[in-house]
Amino acid sequence: GNSVTQMEGPVTLSEEAFLTINCTYTATGYPSLFWYVQYPGEGLQLLLKATKADDKGSNKGFEATYRKETTSFHLEKGSVQVSDSAVYFCALPPPNSGYALNFGKGTSLLVTP
Amino acid sequence: ETGVTQSPTHLIKTRGQQVTLRCSSQSGHNTVSWYQQALGQGPQFIFQYYREEENGRGNFPPRFSGLQFPNYSSELNVNALELDDSALYLCASSQSRTGNTEAFFGQGTRLTVV
Predict the structure, then answer these.
(1) What single-letter DSSP state applies at residue B43?
(2) Could B99 and A31 be called an inter-chain contact, meaning their C-beta atoms sit closer than 8 Å?
(3) Strands (E), chain B
(4) Residue numbers in chain A where pLDDT is lower than 70
(5) What's the pLDDT tens digit per position in B17-72?
(6) How confident is the model at residue B78 (pLDDT cuts 50, 70, 90)?
(7) Which of B6, B55, B102 sits opposite A49 (nearest CB)?
(8) Cα nearest neighbour of A40 on chain B
(9) Residues of chain A positioned with their CB less than 8 A from the CB of B108
C-alpha cells in the first residue's frame, strides 16, 4: 500500500534558521501528498498539499515540492520562528485515491529563541 | 462555520470497560474518519463513515465500532478496553470520502485505560 517515511526527530533549531524535514513516499500512481502540523495539545491542521508531480504546496512560509523522480515531498522553511514548534506529519491516501490517510510517524520540531 | 468538535477532551477508563467518544463534523461535511494516535506515533486510521454507512476500515478489531447520524456527527465505541487502547483519538471530517480531499481534525479525545 501507499506509505511515507519521515526523518526521525526531534529537530532543534534556532530562530531564523533554515528548516528541512525529509519525507519520501511509496505509492501506486500519483496520489495527493500532504503535510499536517500538530501543535502541542491540539489536533492536526493541514499545512499544505500538492496534487500532482512537480506541484509546489505552500503556506505560512512553508513549502514542499512533489518530486516524482526522487519520490520525495520534503518540507522547507527559510526562517523558522518559535511559534513553528510542533510535530509535522507527512501523509498520503491509500491506493486508488482511497479513503482516509496514511501518516508518517511525525517529526518533532523545537525552535529556540 | 463551526469546526470539528470532539467530546470529551479527556477520559479515564478501567480495563474491560466500554467507552463512547463523540464527534461533530464541520458544517457541510458528510464524511467522518476516526484515527488512533499513540504517544509519539502518527495517527492510524480506524474507520470512515460516509452518509451514515461505514465506508472503510483500518486494521482494528471489531470491538472498535462506530455510528454516523443523519446530521453527520459520529460516535466511536470501544468495547472491552485494553491498556494498549490508551491514546489520543482524532476525528476528521471532509466534504468527500476520497483521501485526496482535505480533512479537518478535531482537537482529539485523550483516553487513558488503567
Answers:
(1) -
(2) yes
(3) 5-7, 10-13, 19-24, 31-37, 44-50, 53-57, 64-68, 74-78, 87-94, 104-105, 109-113
(4) 96-98
(5) 999 999 999 988 999 999 999 998 999 999 999 999 998 888 899 999 999 999 99
(6) very high
(7) B102
(8) B107
(9) 42-43
